[in-house]
Write a structure and sequence with these properties.
Length: 117
């Protein structure tokens, strides 16, 4: 018996905002031809965010990053930001770095669910 894979939230139009942010960030890397040289992605959520936002962001990065046998997906670091980080309660900041640690792209997206937890 074959199992049907779970539906893709992006295709179904039910993607959470944090997942959409991850996908848009990955698309921006592809459009600027930085996807291939990205070694690490840093995702920073506001401390006011929820666990649901964190999980949606992680799933979004997993779904958005192309899976290829000749290249591993970059290391992903997920962080909670304190009040001094300059993020609004519903924001997520995503940054991509190359092997030498240089910033390739940094963007901030509205990505919160509105729930706190």
């Amino acid at each position: 018996m074959t199992q049907t894979p779970p539906p893709d939230p992006a295709a179904a139009g039910t993607e959470p905002p944090a997942g959409l942010a991850a996908r848009r960030f990955t698309q921006a890397l592809a459009w600027t031809r930085l996807l291939e040289v990205t070694a690490r992605v840093e995702a920073t959520l506001s401390a006011a965010g929820s666990l649901e936002d964190l999980f949606a962001l992680e799933e979004g990065l997993t779904r958005a990053w192309p899976s290829r046998e000749d290249r591993r997906a970059p290391l992903r670091e997920m962080m909670w930001a304190g009040e001094g980080a300059g993020l609004a309660p519903q924001d997520v900041r995503l940054a991509a770095f190359d092997e030498a640690g240089r910033v390739l792209l940094r963007r901030t997206y509205l990505a919160g669910s509105g729930r706190h937890g």
